[in-house]
Amino acid sequence: MEVKNKYIVIKHHFEDAPKEANFELKTGTIALSVAPGSDDIIVKNLYISIDPYQINRMKLSSSSQGTSSFAAPINPGEAIDGAVIGKVVASGNAKFQKDDLVLGVFTWAQYSLVKEGSILRKLESSEFPLSYYLGVLGFNGLSAYAGFFELCKPLKGEKVFVSAAGGAVGNLVGQYAKLLGCYVVGCAGTQKKVELLKKELGFDEAFNYKEEKDLNYALKRYFPDGIDVYFDNVGGETLEAAVANMRIFGRVAVCGVISEYNSAGRKASPNMLDIVYKRISIRGFLAADFLNVFEEFFSKTLDYLRTGELKTIEDISSGVESIPSAFVGLFKGDNIGKKVISLAED
Ligand SMILES: NC(=O)c1ccc[n+]([C@@H]2O[C@H](COP(=O)([O-])OP(=O)(O)OC[C@H]3O[C@@H](n4cnc5c(N)ncnc54)[C@H](OP(=O)(O)O)[C@@H]3O)[C@@H](O)[C@H]2O)c1
């Protein structure tokens, strides 16, 4: 049987902040069966992860594009790949059966054809919603956990600053830091997010960076004795201000630099003298570098979810049609927590 399959493409490469007009909804067809002898798998997609890094794949060229298979360029007119959870509808691969739940790199579509060699694993049904495997129990959680614990080597009582703290990675970093016993301050772009961080997620302080005239001064207010650990999600002037306020032997984990992802974003130019004399470590990372701690991250995070010590913040939209606005919204601060698209009840 063949069915219609809606999917999202970019119309053209772009360098500026993304707009819905950069995207197009297409409709193709897909067979819900596999030819005898083929090891293809057909997946009905249930949840699609919406992530800022995809913008760097949508540019004509970016220094990121050759660094990892996740960063490979996206061609206009072709289905966009990303992290997806789905259900197998047909399988020529003996390791996967019809109705298996799977997580992998599929397409921004209703259905995906998954070829041998694709990133794909079976998902045992869980006590938590499936969408958690794209966020708190997936690569966002691993980014927060590994970036914070493995790179920053935080100690109880240290002073931690997190940017984009109302987002998928940032809110988890702040919660892990509180669970360790750190003093934690987050910044975010709306008062609603600031209230969430302080009242529901246990941050000691939070502020709206859009209302601050001078970020350097704002950080002095919250960290009169300086910052030990800065978890950077945004780059730009926030990174500069954090470096200016770091203590001796401070550590900066650069998870992402979203304010620099489009051509208008100011590139960070931190004070190198501070970095030398305060012996500050600044290190970028990719979550995929830390698969060696995945099991540890996963079991600790499951425990925290079970006890309710870790809260999950998700922002879910419905339908393939909502993907462009969901993606564009990441760069306007529309999302609160992990942005996910829900496609089908299952
Ligand atoms: N290294 C890795 O393996 C890895 C893995 C996942 C994510 N990342 C990176 O981590 C960062 C956070 O990703 P996420 O998935 O958790 O996204 P997210 O924080 O859920 O969403 C993006 C948020 O960034 C903020 N933002 C957007 N434009 C901004 C700007 N110009 N200046 C300051 N803040 C801005 C917005 O919140 P406000 O309301 O606060 O502005 C927005 O909600 C991104 O840089 C992403 O690329 C890296």
TrEMBL record:
The keyword Oxidoreductase applies. InterPro entries: ADH-like_C (IPR013149), ADH_N_2 (IPR041694), ER (IPR020843), GroES-like_sf (IPR011032), MDR_fam (IPR045010), NAD(P)-bd_dom_sf (IPR036291). Keywords: Oxidoreductase. The keyword Oxidoreductase applies. The gene is Vigan.02G268700. This is Enoyl reductase (ER) domain-containing protein. GO terms for molecular function: oxidoreductase activity, acting on the CH-CH group of donors, NAD or NADP as acceptor. Gene3D superfamilies: Medium-chain alcohol dehydrogenases, catalytic domain (3.90.180.10), NAD(P)-binding Rossmann-like Domain (3.40.50.720).
